[in-house]
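DM from R.C. (forwarded with permission)

"hey, sorry to bug you on a friday — could you get me a structure for this? deadline for the figure draft is monday and I only need the backbone to look sensible"
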Amino acid sequence: MAECSLSELLPEELWIIVAAYAFRDDPSAIANLRSVCKSLKILINNNQNYIVKHSIPRFSFIEHQIPNYYTQHPFLISLRGQLCDFVFRNYTFQMQFPELASSYIRFSKFGWFLLSRGDVNKTHFFFNPFTRQKFEIPNSNKRFMSMCFSSSPSSSDCHVFGWTAGLKSCGVIKRGEQEWNFYGELGSSLETNQHHPIFYKDRCYCMGDRYTVVFNLKNKSLEVLPKIPFWHCSVTDYYLVADEEEDNLLAIFVPSDKDKIEIMRYDHSDQIWREIETLKNKTLFLSRTASFIKQAPVECMKNRICFPKLRDNDYIVYSYGNGNYCSFLGDYRNKIPVDLKALPNCAWIETVTAPTSCREEFQW
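My reply, with the result:
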């Protein structure tokens, strides 16, 4: 029997609305709809960003805040082979991305992933999981320990940065260029946890043990910031985050024991690090490949830190006020983050605003 056209049953616009309502009640329904027929699968794939952003879940206890909350809250995405797990609060759904097979996430921002492919670690590309746009960037002749980019890959001013082992040099390539340029050569290597660098005010910052190395994009030079005073043997993880709204460069230190997470900001005028006592109305989202700070989407997220760790599909939040780890829905509470599932190859990502029907094809 020949497959009938979807438009003979319902207009395509209505099929998209049906998919959005189905996803709202059960995120796994997307996979069921995609398996109905080839035409519906293509339609959903081409409009999945719109479907996800308009399928407002029914959370009655914050119903009046849902539209604003849903559009402002980032997704946590974990890549396993070609399978992507999307985590939104305690909702999880999966999508297949064959184009991402054998790759791993290096950095995420502006709704885009920067990924590397295979074990060679010299082949890199951009991918937007909401529009499925993908384009390669020129290969490098050196392996990078960590990477980031400065602006949306669609911008003509987008720069990609790659730090070599020991933070000894920084590779840079700008959109439109075909060759990587390498700058600086520190006299000695610095140990690092291989977390992502950040781009902030024409500089690329990469944090090593006790020191932060900075590449100045304007004068193409490397410098080392003053030693961070807060550091002891219990620190197992550390992150850099740019709070552009407050004009602050933040360093976050996560201990392995019951010690409190510490956050410090860099005072550019005095060139020293100062401890901060509260995040006020903001939320920190931390992961090895994407970390950022933003206004809390709802009241209960103020002065909190979100980690890429789950308990029963509910991710873990740390209160910077009382020092407790808890699940988002509140059924887990502990001073030490134990009995949790850490997501490998994952990143926080904020949804783009334009529907995929408006997408363009880009070339580096």
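R.C.: lifesaver. The longest helix spans residues 12-25.
me: no worries. Residues 56-70, 354-359 have pLDDT under 50 and may be disordered.
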